[in-house]
Amino acid sequence: LLHAVVNVDVGGVKRALEEGADAERRVDIKKLNEEFQILKRTSTTLSQTIEGTVCTLLYPHIFLLAWFGTADNRKASPEELNIIEMLLQSAKDPKALANDVLDVTQGPDDPFHNLSLLLQAAYGNQLEVCKLLLRFGADPLLKAANGMTALSVAKQFDRPKILSVLLASMEDREGTPPIGELTSVDDVVQWVQISKPYFVNQH
Fold first, then answer.
1. How confident is the model over 176-191, as a mean pLDDT?
2. pTM listed for this prediction
């Protein structure tokens, strides 16, 4: 499964999952990088992260898509999206997998600790990846150690389409986006439209 995901081999991923491979297995991201050098060209701190930092196979896959989105403005291919969907569908707990975070061994003081898949996808302007993760229950308000959420990242880095999708996903939740993260008039108007049913239902 590991080789198939790294090589974006849809058929290989499908076969591995059918044979019982675990989509939720956590891997050491430094060892993964040393073996495949999948993060080599990103030139980021994550590519040099300390040994022991773990995540599921989905994390480096989506991290690379996020990097391509910001560096080359490349969107996820149908094959890459297919792999994400297959991994999520095969998980015993798809919602937990959709909310996978980077588990940094240095703990909560490390700024990379608890960065979610959805936050990475929002930062990388990967709209279809965000939609896919949200469909499986990803939380736009899951907070990283640095205080950022997917929602705040979409706003800060001017991702209006992603911000709209994240806000819309709040309709089915028991709660509303924190209005403090929304400062433009359009953001607030959309927040009010989405939040209105919630407040009406409370009375």
1. 50
2. 0.77
